[in-house]
Amino acid sequence: MESKIRHLEMIQSVIARMNSNSFLLKGWTVTIVVALFAFANVKDMDSNLIVLAIIPAMFFWGLDAFFVHQEWLFIKLYEYVTTQNEKDINFSMKTSPFKFQVRKWRYALLSKTILPFYLPVTFLVIVAYIWLK
Fold first, then answer.
1. Among the listed ranges 16-20, 33-37, 56-60, 108-112, which one has the minimum average pLDDT value?
2. Residue 90: DSSP 8-state
3. How far apart are CA 25 and CA 67, in angstroms?
4. Which residues contact 19 (CB under 8 A, 6 or more apart)?
5. Could you tell me which of 68, 67, 98, 85 has the C-alpha nearest to residue 7?
6. Is 43 helix (H, G, I), strand (E, B) or coil?
7. CA 56, CA 122: separation in Å to the nearest integer?
């Protein structure tokens, strides 16, 4: 039972790291978008600088979706390990056997933890660009 618990703890730490990465990406997105809005200069309001905020928002949206997809894979690995016998525990961290059991990466782009954050940020940038044009 000790091996199984250790393996599950290893997997859980990876899942926690994926969650942490996702949280940090959201923070970086807000920081960079707000910084680009600030650099757009309040007096002149150069809308070309504002539209640049779309680039990091889209990049972080995709990267965040990647981490969510990886989290889904590790959750499947965790579930699999819980069903294994103690003698079958090999401490494998490979998630490739589960890639057909979880939704594809593109579905992570629209997941309930990703879409409600990145869609309004992207919408705000587009509206600010159009309004200032």
1. 33-37
2. -
3. 10
4. 71
5. 85
6. coil
7. 10
